Amino acid sequence: MKILYQDDYYVAVNKPAGLLVHRSEIDRHETRFAVQMLRDQLGRRVFPVHRLDKPTAGVLLFALRPEAARRMMAAFMSDSIRKTYLAVVRGHTSEMATIDYPLKEELDKMTDAKADPNKQAQPAVTHYRRLATVELPHAVGRYPSCRYSLLRLSPETGRKHQIRRHMKHIFHPIVGDTTHGDGRHNDFFRTHFDCRQLLLAATGLAFAHPYSGRPVDITAPLDQVYSRVITELGWENLPGQF
Q1: To bridge 132 with a disulfide, which of 12, 150, 225, 239 should be the other Cys (CB 3.0-4.6 Å)?
Q2: How many helices (DSSP H) and strands (DSSP E) are in the chain?
Q3: What is the CATH number of the domain that holds 30?
Q4: How many domains does the chain have?
């Protein structure tokens, strides 16, 4: 994996789409995990301090020491980390908005068997800004054309699948989301753009270093498939989009 940042305490990589962060009962057949791959790459133990969904690509941060992991996890829990994502969504969104919609925890039958199914919804806030739109002359569903927006998103909180669920909530699901998305538009992108992945990427992670206090700003480029889709939609020359 491409290393984006490294010091004596932390290392960040650009996680590919489709790669699990660590071993999970949900995907027993998987044999490749970011934790194991980075451990083998560096020749030392690494400690994940946050997570990205399996289909989400982008900045993934690890600690190199247990105490460093505890400090960074506390920062994530306090929502003091600034996270930036790029997404392609169905429809034309507002130019900018804040989605303030509490989310109930999504429970998995295998891994969350002991969790409380009646737990109250937790506060969840996502800010977004629209960077570009496009309308294509293809009928998807009942409309004679299809519309898409390119968004930069900044989640203020870190709930499970927060961005994907929030975009579904406002009826602008992310393209390629097979759980919270629109299957017709997912099929359209597979057929017309040969794109079979979630068009959501963690492009930025910024924080105050837990040891030195200095600002750290890590960015990740889009992968080949995502970059190609951006180009084919006519968005490749947008200034400062990532």
Answers
A1: 150
A2: 5, 10
A3: 3.30.2350.10
A4: 1
